Structures are given as C-alpha cells and as structure tokens.
C-alpha cells in the first residue's frame, strides 16, 4: 500500500479492530495482583465474619436471662468459662449462665448477646447485671459484613490496595487477571542517540522510545525497548524481526514518511502486510499499521507530539482492550482559552494545556519537544471547521 493513499481515522481504527487479537487470561498470586485488571467477577466464598462474634469485651449471655434486670433488682448469672479470640467454644450456655468473652471471639452456643464490662459487676463466680440485654447486643452475626456469594469485585476492575485487602479478607491467595501485552518499542534514525551518549552535531536525544515504553507501562502493559534502528535496511529489519519474535506487538517511531531513508513500510510489507500507510489527520499523517505473523506493527511519526497523539488515538485503545480496560478513556470538557485557526478539509488534533476550566492551545508545532511535555492532552478540530472561537467548549482527550 503506497504512502499518501491516506484513509480516515475511522478506517484506521476499523483495521486495528479487525486484528485477530483477544485478551489473554492468567492466574497470579494475590501478592502480585496490585494494579492488574480482573478477568472475571469475584464472589465471596465465605461469610465475613464466618461466625457470630463479640464486638466488645464482656460477658456472653442468653438475652432472655436478663430481661428482668434493673438497678433495684439486678440479675445474677453464673460465669462458667472464658472465650478469647481464636478459641473454639466448647461451652454451651444453660439458663442462668454466662461466659467471659473478649472482642472478636466466637459466641458460645445459645448465647445471643454480649454485655460489656462497664455495665456489669463481677462477684466471685457470678456477674451482676443491672439492665436487660437484647438479642444482638454486642454481637456481629455471621455474614453481616460480607455474606457468602456476594459479588465483591466486577470483571474489568483495576485492583487497588483496598481491593487486594478485600480479596485477602475472604481468603483468596490468587486471582484471574488479564495478561499484560508485551510490546516491543523501537526508535529509528541516524540522528537519534540514547540519553547518556555524547551528542554530536546534527544529533538529538531519543524521547519517543522512553515516552512510548512508559506510556505502555502506565496503561498496564509490558514494554521492551529494543534500541535505535539506523537508517539502513538490515538494522531496521533485524529489530522488527526481534520484536515480532519476543513480543505481542511492535511500535516504531520515525521512518514512516516517504523519504529515501524511510524503510519501515517496505520491510513490514516484506515480512507481513501493510494495512494502512497514511491517515488523514494532522499531525500524524505518515503512520503505518501492519500485521506480521498475526502481530500488530505500528509505525508512528518521529515528531514527539505526532507520535504520542497517534499512540493515544490508535495504540492505546488496542492495549486497553487487551488489558480489559476498554471503558477507561480520560476525557474532560473545557473552554478554549483563545481563538484557533485550522486548515479546512484537514482533521487536526491540537495539543492543549489545562488551567482551571480553560484549555490553552500549544502552537509550537509537533516537532517541538515542549509541545508534548507541556500538553495535558489534545482537542479535535473537525475537517469542516476553520475557526474555533475563544470560550468555545471543547473535549480534551488526555495523553496516557
């Protein structure tokens, strides 16, 4: 497919959605589940608490034995034992009996109330009760907190520390989660060098490799940065083949336009199939979408803002699908800070910075590093719109 045979953004997304990819499901220990996305609904296998338990330190009683108690005519009950948290009660209360019990301990058979220490007096092997207790006083019944069979967490939940604590409370030691897509990241260009290396005349430090890899990780995937491919066929082909071999997806930045050194499209065509080469958007027109051995290959533009805008538009939705997070798209509505001019007939995605209720356009161009760094996200200017007025409401799509 030749470059400049451009398609709409919708056609590009259609091509991506047609890829034969489904989320993978794996079982992981609960200790490794933080931040992962549940692949199934989780129901409680037990009651919490699993038994009727005392919520205060005091005496477990049969409430009916205390109904006649008053300040003038207290009731005396025989103390026949002691139960502490973690004990298995062996005693069974008979009429006129009580048991010393500590907070969290299971109630003995026939007991239905616990009177706290402050409301009674001890006298030898008896306890003196001055006011009646009612069934349930000082008691948490089994399943009151969490009943057995209750849905605790739904499929698609990204697990927080509160969620893992809840799963631990009902006895889960492992959970089923969506697998992490493994993504190979490749930067391209003779002019690009890694941070830490000497910067010679005509060279720039790589930003896209770091940005794409960490954007993948931020979404929940695994990113493997394979390095920088030089502008020669052997170097680029070797890294693409390595990415296809070790990962589920390959993302390249740079090398997608029609220049003599831009080889990505021909290599993808040689190894597999180019589905899209050119999208009718600005910035980001020179974008490649292909398939090699059933694995997606994205050739994103080299300019940072173009690269990360197209990552957000094209790659992020696919990653969210594979991670079970399709509904998580960060958007907000704001008022445009000042007038924006666009070219009619060209669909534009303009980076903006959010300040309060305003979206402030960043007009430095997609080649400026700070266009992306200063931006919180971008707005869409439709192809039939030439001017967006100051104060007009716009929808901001967040990067990441």
UniProtKB/TrEMBL annotation:
> What Gene Ontology cellular-component terms does the record carry?
cytoplasm
Which UniProt keywords are present, listed alphabetically? Magnesium, Metal-binding, Molybdenum, Molybdenum cofactor biosynthesis, Transferase
Is Lyase tagged as a keyword? no
The pathway that the record names for this protein is: Cofactor biosynthesis; molybdopterin biosynthesis
Q: Per the UniProt entry, what are the Gene Ontology biological process annotations, in alphabetical order?
A: Mo-molybdopterin cofactor biosynthetic process
Which InterPro entries does the entry link to? MoaB/Mog-like_dom_sf, MoaB/Mog_dom, MoeA-like, MoeA_C_domain_IV, MoeA_C_domain_IV_sf, MoeA_linker/N, MoeA_linker/N_sf
The EC number of this protein is 2.10.1.1
Instruction: Write out the catalysed reaction.
Output: adenylyl-molybdopterin + molybdate = Mo-molybdopterin + AMP + H(+)
In terms of domain of life, where is this protein from?
Archaea
GO MF term list: metal ion binding; molybdopterin molybdotransferase activity
Which cofactors are reported in the record for this sequence? Answer: Mg(2+)
- Per UniProt, residues of the MoaB/Mog domain are 184-321
Q: What family is this?
A: Belongs to the MoeA family.
Tell me what this protein is called: molybdopterin molybdotransferase
- Give the species this sequence originates from: Thermococcus camini
